[in-house]
């Protein structure tokens, strides 16, 4: 079984010569580089300034975000308590509940540890 695409997490990857290819987003990568990147990172998730995040941390949103289906977005400076780190889709690796918005997934690059 082939690994999912590192860009879009698609399960429909296939081999083309020495590369793996994602038919959904077109990303190409070598299986050796994907294994070494995963081993080097070790599953550590860092915020926008490089602090290591853990389950239960409180973070602050550093950039205003638009939310589909909601007339207003999430404003910069919004505190998010009790985050949970997950293997999300498309880089969304924080699972949380934001007051006034409900359950949501965020990218670690738009938050700062409080």
TrEMBL record:
It holds the Pfam family Zn_Ribbon_YjdM. InterPro entries: YjdM, YjdM_C, YjdM_N. SUPFAM superfamilies: Prokaryotic SH3-related domain, Zinc beta-ribbon. Residues 45-114 form the Protein YjdM C-terminal domain. Residues 2-30 form the Protein YjdM N-terminal domain. NCBIfam families: phnA. Belongs to the YjdM family. This is Alkylphosphonate utilization protein. It comes from Streptomyces luteoverticillatus.
């Amino acid at each position: 079984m082939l690994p999912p695409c590192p860009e879009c997490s698609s399960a429909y990857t296939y081999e083309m010569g020495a590369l793996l290819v994602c038919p959904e987003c077109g990303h190409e990568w070598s299986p050796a580089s994907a294994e070494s990147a995963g081993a080097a990172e070790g599953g550590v998730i860092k915020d926008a300034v490089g602090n290591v995040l853990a389950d239960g941390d409180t973070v602050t949103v550093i950039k205003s975000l638009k939310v589909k289906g909601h007339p207003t977005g999430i404003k910069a400076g919004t505190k998010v308590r009790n985050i949970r780190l997950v293997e999300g889709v498309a880089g969304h690796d924080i699972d949380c509940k934001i007051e006034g918005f409900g359950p949501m997934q965020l990218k670690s690059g738009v938050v700062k540890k409080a």
